[in-house]
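Archive entry: two folds, one per protein. Generate the first.
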Amino acid sequence: MKIFIVLCVFWLHKAAGFIYSLNDTEYDRLPPMFKLDDFYPCLRDPGDRYCYVDAKLVANGSSELLHTLQEYTIANNFTHYDHNLIHWGICVTKTCRSYLNNHTDANEALEACLNSSLLQTYQLQAHLVKDKVYCTEFEETAKIDTAEKVVAVVVIAIVLLNVLGTLFDLCCVSKSVGGRFLLCFSAKRNWRRLFAPSGEGSEPRLSRLKLFNGMKACTTFLVILGHSPLAAVISTDNPHFLELTYYDFTFHIFYNGNLIVQTFFVLSGCLLAFNLLIMEEKSQLTWPKFPRFVMLRWMRLTPSYAAVLAVIATWMKRLGDGPMWKPVVGVETEACRRDWFYHLLYLNDYVDHSQCMAHTWYLAVDMKLTILGLIVFCLVKSWRGRKVVIGVWFWLECWCQLSAHTCKT
């Protein structure tokens, strides 16, 4: 019993150093994490410059305020922002004009200007994170490179094929190879196929799956709803409010959005099993057929996926501007140029800290689950054996997920 009491006291002593919550008055003492000078008024004259920077807060000596924000950050890094870092957009040529004359290096001038503001108000300083300084010059332009030219030609060709295919479908009827090829791009024909009722065609049993359309529509709505607040999370004037939403039940639909995506995996697995069982009425799925099924799945997903990936890796950075454009869209563009092949191989969910189309992780997962499902059908031929394998697999996955969450916590 004495040992238990000693351990409890020791644990309480260790936990006492953390600050789990701050009231509004205490929170207002912290330096603002996000602060943006006006962007467009800053870039109206030649030589004007605007920089968005990440900076780590430090203090020359002992600082009670620095200790508070550090302990508050450490207490729960799942629900608290990292208050050791600030993210400010600074109009360099207006806010920091006097410091530019005293420093030859632009980053040194920017850091000195930032420190002047922090010292005066919070008695703190900041060191710029060197690879997180994003500057925009007056009427800044970048030369169009080869990759952008290639993507532009491909996109224009696809648009022309859609126009020609639609016109050909409306005006002509031809069974030639070229005619059938153009009809593949007909908007009229593809619209009709897209909205065709389930079960239309050679397999009437597919009509049983009509309810899947409603489930997919509801799930898609929830996915869009869950991602819509992200723009406010990237930069906000009130991070304390967002931190407190973790304790508000009504916001849990956003923070547990991964569970919503699981419905896509369940629907995909049901459709895969249903189609394979129908196919097995005529012939068994064997290992020689396995590469063909994997390639068909890859070809179904990849063309549209690759088109979006190519546009984001090239032209996306030119489609807008603003204080957050380079640190968000520009970083994603560079990441996609670096990691594009992981996406085309559906291995992007294994690439840590990549900003390239992070929302497409579910495509890589779905591809792997499809391959594993095909492996199960090839290895186990009996229906009872398949149920046992999938059941054991399901519980192992649950155990792994629970263990990973426990270790992370």
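Generate the second and append.
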Amino acid sequence: MELFQAKDHYILQSGESALWCSRKDGSLQTRAATDLLLAWNPICLGLVEGIIGKVQLHTDLPWWLLLIRQKSLIGKLPGGHEIYKVTKIAVIPLSNTEPQDLELELCKKHHFGIHKPEKITQSPDDSKFLMKTLTQIKSNVSAPNKKKVKESKEKEKLERRLLEELFKMFMDSDSFYYSWTYDLTNSVQRQSSGEKSQLPLWQRVDDRFFWNKYMIEDLINIKDPQGSSWILPVIQGFVQIEELVVNYNESSDDEKSSPETPPQEPPTCVDDVHPRFMVALISRRSRHRAGMRYKRRGVDKSGHVANYVETEQLIHVHCHTLSFVQTRGSVPVFWSQVGYRYNPRPRLDKVEKETSQYFCSHFHQELSIYKKQVLINLVDQAGREKIIGDAYLKQVLLFNNPSLTYVSFDFHEHCRGMKFENVQTLTDAICDIIMDLKWCWLV
């Protein structure tokens, strides 16, 4: 899609539709692409991949428009759905301020044969004159104006720091993904219900994982059918898609491991004997109660727990798709860690009776979605974390729901010294429970 700069708007154009973003108040409006002719001297700035939304990180600063500047293809899911990762973004202030060099890919339609102008270098005499002029201007600034200049510099410094954090979040974390055709927020099982299959993609999403919902809320509230094509649901998390080949070999495992056995060449063709299959992992982080580790802990009064993630494993082979889902989150009681030193001591912020209502609220939500759950408590069973583990167990006993199975495993004690293979102790102990878990199978 093309991005245009006009006197009072930034305009995104894709096909026969255009999105107008006001530089005065940050409002968004969908219009016909032909309305571009009505804009005051529109200039094409280049191409973008999509709109994330708009955000105002401080009341003293303007609204910023967040655009996807560059993407990378992660892979394709069954049905040919392409999944992309956001690799670079562009941030444009919705104000009269001129945008900096956005480094957008140039639009061949409007930039054919155009080159960026060369920088004009100043002579030493020009530099001396400029410095002299600036010195004279500074000396003539009154005390009140000096205060305004200082405030302006502080504001610029704040804006620069916030922008750096914004770029770091989207471009350094490698954790934002999207698809124009596939619902990354919902598991295969939730998608298979078909209740919302005729709705636009953004109206089919799981609200918990629609990461940029707040940023794109203006378009959602317009309730304009044309606006649906501009609403792109983005998830934060992780996506990996791999295609593998099953190479059935009649030789025994002992023969395979023998040094005298020559290595087997991979099959040159893929057929019923050597089928190709796809494996994918999709982790979705909830937009509710997200935050930095140690700074965001426990449950809130809406029943949301800190840094909640749903992870789905997909296997697709011979037109069959299998899906298995796990979730993780902070211990659902009111607790926190205060201080900046490494691993600050946890503390309980509410007593048992005050916590019960919100603990129940959390698991009522969970059971309404997942039906049965096995709770694996990984906190230390001794030392500073014991207070959190004990509070968790008490709440499970008070809740007393047959759809919950509680298992405690002191991860740090068993896997001390990077011996993660000792998790096998846990999986062996709960083997019967694992075999009883369900998964989704679509044909």
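Annotation attached to the second fold: Residues 241 and 280 are 4 Å apart (CA to CA). The longest strand covers residues 64-77.
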